[in-house]
Amino acid sequence: MIRKSLLCLLGLIWTSAANAEWALNMPRGITELSAETFDLHMMVFWWCVAIGVIVFGVMIISIFKHRKSAGATPATFSHSTTAEVIWTAIPCVILLLMAVPSAETMIRLEDSREPDVSIVVTGYQWKWHYKYQDEGIDFFSSLALPSVRARFKESGIDPFSVENYLLEVDRPLVVPRGKKVRLLLTSNDVIHSWWVPEIAIKRDAIPGIINEAWFRATETGTFRGQCAELCGKDHGYMPIVIEVVEVDAYQAWIETHHDAGAKIAQLGTRP
Amino acid sequence: MTAAVADVHDDHGPAKGFKRWLFTTNHKDIGTLYLVFSLTMFFVGGAMALVIRSELMTPGLQFVHPEFFNQMTTMHALVMVFGAVMPAFVGLANWMIPMMIGAPDMALPRMNNWSFWILPVAFGMLISTLFLPGGAPASGWTMYPPLVLQTGDAFPFLIFSVHLMGLSSIMGAINIIVTILNMRAPDMWLLKMPMFVWTWLITAYLLIAVMPVLAGAVTMLLTDQFFGTSFFLAAGGGDPVMFQHIFWFFGHPEVYIMILPAFGVVSEIIPTFSRKPLFGHDSMVYAASSIAFLSFIVWAHHMFTVGMPLSGQLFFMFATMLIAVPTGVKIFNWVATMWRGAMTFETPMLFSLAFVFLFTIGGFSGLMLAVAPADIQYHDTYFVVAHFHYVLVPGSIFAIMAAAYYWLPKWTGYMYNEAAGKLHFWLSTIFVNLTFFPMHFLGLAGMPRRIPDYSTQFTDFNTMASVGAMGFGLSQLVFIYVLLTSKKGARATDRVWEAPRGLEWTVPSPAPYHTFDTPPKVRVAQESFE
Q1: A190 CB near a chain B CB, below 8 Å?
Q2: CA dist B113 to B27, B107, B109, B374, Å?
Q3: Which of A3, A59, B1, B376 has the greatest count of CB atoms below 10 A from its CB?
Q4: How many CB atoms lie within 10 A of CB B471?
Q5: Which residues of A touch B325 (CB under 8 A)?
Q6: What is the pLDDT of residues B8-67, one digit of tens each?
Q7: pTM above threshold 0.95
Q8: How far apart are the C-alpha atoms of A255 and A257, rounded to whole Å?
Q9: Catalytic residue among B28, B53, B184, B330
């Protein structure tokens, strides 16, 4: 049965490319590091499959051949130093093959030096706050209204009728393509975790601590994620949406924000 | 005449009625109490799991509010970890360790009574929080501050019940160590001890090492909440991440506390039904010891997303990967035990075989989780939920089931209903996979854990998992049927099975209330099996 589920798993992964809606595997993502992470994930997965085929294979052969009802008589051996040395040494070599590339990726993941854009991300119960450090833009990003209306018990709204149910926000995070974006994460109350699978960033937002993460998106588009650390009753209702746009569009977006900001400031000073 | 009087005295049975159970100092009675308590908690925790799975059957909220959902995930974990799995293994240890090492009872029988009776009190208190204003704790069984400090009236109950569970575990562990080290039959050298005894000895040391750490962590939470300290509060100069370090310094050995005795159980059962001695007994002992040692230096792999220094992350990644080596040795040894044996497939063997298969799958996902960059993607998703349920349900719980079927005839004196046992096995195995296998896909596709509602693309696998969970829950009723009819079968012989080895098979079935008034000779017992 296990073999069946393994085969099933392989079959499913094979067809998954054709069926993006029904995702079975980790996304490859839109940054160099998310692709590296994906490759590491697949590498370990295939090692596991290979080890599984051997171990389960031997077990299944035993179960069918060395059974009493098939007339097997039991051997009496209970020890073999050679065998034990082999099956201690080989896993060590395999682990080394996994550890080296993982460490290399890890080192690159942690190198958030010289960013082009810095954004302070603050977790609140239960929404996110973004502050563009150099542009003077800041805003809250909360669950979008259609999802809010549908999320309650007996709301009478079918979640299937809501586009991107629970994964849409009122104001997404906008970032430029090809630029190194550094996130500085912290929290205002309890621990949250900012996670967008497509850029392979999941980093805890912790009160009193500022964490760093960085990414450089290679594609434009809208990418979604969620809070990944239990943060109270509405933990499931604080999604993250990032919009990766070309640099010009990003500049334009900043301008409109500045204009809007100036207008609001004027309104405030009107006699 | 005097001899006859002495016999009467030696042979006194248990007291009658409830006093037998309340005041008992007999290892078999206390073992039974632990096992019955564990089974009860298994159903209580299971009912909570079914609340969770019912809510997650389809997107949208149908049955509960998010607050109550979080209470269910928290209580499900606490009840299953501290109420079902750990007491089950302590119950097995109480029943079997004295019989396996040739001792008349546990070394500290009164403490044994106390360490059991603390448990119903602790869980009575914990479960009563469901009826308090504000409800039960809802911050996850990991109790991370600052969130856990937002718990309502349930908070001190949570802390105090964790203290009590810790006390119970520590006393149980001391008892087991003292028994094993002092009360073995004279010619049972340490390396001759059965694997179940060995793994429990190691587990007991783990318990003594880490339960006080948990007690310290929750006490600091208590003083942060009520006495103005700021151990974990940034506003007062504390550090919320420090709690996670302390918690997981307890939490990771705790994982092995729940699996090492399971290793011991299957190491007893697989040789019996393969009719071949356990392969590499001594290397199994060394492997279990290495796992126990490594369990102390891998805790921060639960924390790859908290922002540790790079060197720390690399260290914990490498140390975690190393655990695969001794764990691999164990699995290879079990397979080598089966190899060229003469296997039969009674219910205990079926559960043990499924254990080896499915625990290995949990081990594979564990290896994937060890790879830190990938772990950043897996962390706090359903992939992790799938991983730890694979090692706990078809891991620990299947081993407990295997142990129950294996030793039940020795406990009751009758063979259980084999057909019902096999039905229980097949239903459990099919449904456990239906429940937990799809969770791997959910996690990889991006579904975080501990959410009461989810985006619509996760619907199909959630529905599968929910159906599987209902099926798994119902299948456990077959086990109840087996237990209720356990005295209806044929009389069990002393040896029960065709080829088991070990002192417990030299005493009558059911085992008399007091076994081994005089220490047995292990060699004589071994020869009688030839």
Answers
A1: yes
A2: 9, 12, 6, 46
A3: B376
A4: 16
A5: 88, 91-92, 95
A6: 445 566 777 888 899 999 999 999 999 999 999 999 999 999 999 999 999 999 999 999
A7: no
A8: 5
A9: B330
